[in-house]
């Protein structure tokens, strides 16, 4: 008989292998792009910076970092009930996101090998980092008697097509927000070691530097393609991706506030800090920043949080599907209205905010 504490409420494909979470708008996505367009990019205007970043990737600062030590070698059955379930979900989401990066970067490295050697090697070395991250997280899941079949994920997940410039916007923000998420958790637990429920959090300080270097790479690529940053379209797309990334993180994390509470963190305060820091960082490359200090910014996101709670209640009810659709429709409209207003909120000029001359 399987101990109910070990696998709380998770469906398995086979013993010990978790069925991947259902894909939704809020789950980590897998991406593909126009590889030929990527290969045609001229990076000469910023090639020196890209080569310097490549040298950093080659050094491989974390090649000896992701090694499990004696602290992992124990039973984790004392992490039980809802805390265990939330923690496994955290590991799965993180593993899926890292593995998504690995697949995209690996394919880019393969496709660009003969056409843009500098970019190809950068992508290959970033895929190396992401593979380590994903493997480390998947091994952590095995401490809770579950794991992901990453080969199955590769074949079963749907892939979202983005043009190269959108890949750059999205992955830049993903890497930079990942840095701020990891370093914020690490610094908090460094001050409050009694809240560090599992040893993986000790690895976050060095780990987040991988995310930071990856973000710097995409920063350098966008600077090599100034048309991606200098026109009115760039301002609109920057706002869109900033809002998408911030909104997705906020809705996910508030929904899982009990997990952050186990680490001694208030999920809302944590997200506000991460959003503020990522917004400031993005302002060093994007032409605009979101006005995240506007009084209605989080008020509207909080309405979306309550909307999500209502949607889950309806989905979990016994009402017929057609009735659920009509019950959900006004909530979807409210969702759209909140995000439209957030998108139309006047942004901040990044150069002015940072005192830069562009």
Description:
With 358 residues, the protein is mainly alpha-helical. Helices cover 64% and strands 4% of the residues. The protein is built from 13 helices and six strands. A hairpin with a 2-residue loop joins strand 1 (12-14) and strand 2 (17-18). The longest helix has 32 residues, at 81-112. The radius of gyration is 21 Å and the shape is globular.
Please tag this protein with its features.
13 helices; 358 residues; mainly alpha; 64% helix; single chain; two-stranded parallel ribbon; disordered N terminus; two-stranded antiparallel ribbon
Strand order of the largest sheet: 1-2
Flag low-confidence runs. Answer: 1-6
Biggest sheet architecture: 2 strands, antiparallel
Count helical runs. Answer: 13
Oligomer: single chain
Mean of pLDDT: 92
What is the H-and-E element order? EEEHHHHHEHHHHHEHHEH
Helix content: 55-70%
Number of extended strands: 6
First and last CA, distance: 65 Å
| Rg measurement, Å | 21 Å
How much strand?
under 5%
Overall body shape: globular
Backbone structural class: mainly alpha
Itemize the secondary structure elements and their pairings.
Blueprint: E1 12-14, E2 17-18, E3 30-32, H1 35-39, H2 47-59, H3 81-112, H4 117-142, H5 150-156, E4 159-161, H6 164-191, H7 204-224, H8 232-255, H9 257-262, H10 267-282, E5 288-289, H11 295-315, H12 321-344, E6 348-349, H13 350-354
Parallel strand pairs: 3-4
Antiparallel strand pairs: 1-2, 5-6
Helix pairs in contact: 2-4, 2-7, 3-4, 4-7, 6-7, 6-8, 6-10, 8-10, 8-11, 11-12
